[in-house]
Design goal:
The protein is α/β, with parallel strands linked by helices. The chain is built from 12 helices and 14 strands. Strand 2, helix 1 and strand 3 form a beta-alpha-beta unit. Helix 5 packs parallel to helix 12.
Length: about 350
């Protein structure tokens, strides 16, 4: 299984509010949760990028949150949105903090740290996480490793496209879409990968300007592009390995691929789900317990089989069928490490350049 380095996706936000789902019998209420014998609330609120919870209730979050509640009696309240949206929401709530745990993708986890949204906490099991997959100051650590990728419709395209340049062909006009950079983690990843593959900001923007002729338009949700691709409404879209691999179990026409620059090798980079304890969290002790649970051996062994991703702990070596298939999928793909410090510092400028180039 490939070693990950350091970040993924977004869900639509209705009416400016993210979907709030209670994963135990709370009926979706936002009222105070149950209390323990000392009167402390037995609840923990998680703000997360999408991809690990399934609409069918069989995703990694569904399983590990249910196990956590059964084990501790602590109810999990879940708020889902785009990577950037979750950080922005937490920023807006800094004077009245609502979230206990924030889980998002790079560069947004670094952005959250830079905005003072995270407090130090090193979960149990974090010593088994590779150094590049966690912060040096204990503010965040990866709980599920993952990689950026693209999807295609296997029914309409017998073979996956191989290069970025192929996507400029007229056959993809109105049949190609990627999520919005700066809003969706996977959309931001399109910028990161194209700048790497084309050798800098300017050549990447020149390419994305050309690609805009085929692009359907902006999308705040990466997760909704896969169903459109499976149905044939799209031929190609962006995504990430974990989310798309999990979706492919119920979407038979969905295939995963990694674009290369013409004459080069297919590339990708790590997009882990990184988790941190929120500063001034209303239930910090419950948040710590949840972070410990997410990095526990039992939860980590379910990452590939249930979640379609890669364990964050290096000592967990799954051998289930999904783990074998994921390893095969990554074979021959060059994994590079972005300069996250540069991206964190210049993300606004990169997104503005993309807007200018594409007229978005």
């Amino acid at each position: 299984m490939p070693r990950t380095l350091a970040p993924r996706g977004a869900a639509a936000v209705t009416g400016g509010l993210a979907l709030i789902a209670c994963l135990t019998a709370c009926g979706g209420s936002s009222s105070a949760g149950p209390a323990d014998s000392r009167g402390a609330e037995k609840v923990v609120t998680v703000y997360s990028a999408d991809g690990l919870k399934s609409e069918k209730g069989d995703g990694w979050y569904d399983r590990v949150f249910a196990d956590f509640t059964k084990k501790t009696g602590i109810e999990v309240k879940y708020v889902e949105g785009g990577s950037g949206e979750m950080v922005q929401r937490a920023v807006r709530e800094k004077t009245n903090t609502q979230a206990d745990v924030l889980i998002t993708l790079p560069p947004f986890i670094q952005q959250a740290d830079g905005n003072g949204l995270l407090q130090p906490y090193v979960p149990q099991g974090a010593d088994k996480v590779n150094g590049a997959d966690k912060s040096t100051d204990g503010k965040w650590t990866s709980v599920v490793n993952n990689y950026f990728g693209f999807v295609y419709n296997k029914k309409e395209l017998p073979e996956a496209p191989k290069t970025w340049e192929e996507l400029l062909d007229a056959r993809y006009k109105g049949k190609l879409q990627y999520s919005t950079p700066g809003v969706a983690g996977d959309g931001t990843a399109v910028l990161i990968k194209s700048m790497h593959d084309f050798g800098g900001k300017e050549p990447a923007m020149d390419y994305l300007k050309k690609l805009q002729a085929n692009n359907v338009g902006p999308s705040s949700s990466t997760s909704k592009l896969a169903p459109k691709t499976d149905k044939g409404e799209l031929l190609v879209a962006n995504g990430d390995v974990q989310m798309n691999f999990a979706q492919s179990k119920s979407m038979p026409n969905l295939g995963i691929w990694f674009p290369a620059k013409e004459g080069g090798r297919p590339t990708t980079f790590a997009l882990p789900y990184a988790a941190g304890l929120v500063a001034k969290a209303p239930h910090p002790e419950n948040g710590k317990k949840l972070l410990d649970h997410l990095l526990g051996e039992e939860a980590q062994r379910l990452v590939s089989e249930v979640g379609g991703g890669f364990p964050a702990r290096s000592d967990i070596k799954p051998t289930d069928a999904s783990a074998v298939e994921l390893t095969k999928l990554m074979s021959g793909v060059e994994v590079f490490e972005p300069d996250w410090a540069d991206i964190d510092k210049n993300l606004t400028g990169y997104v503005d350049a993309w807007k200018s180039a594409t007229g978005s």
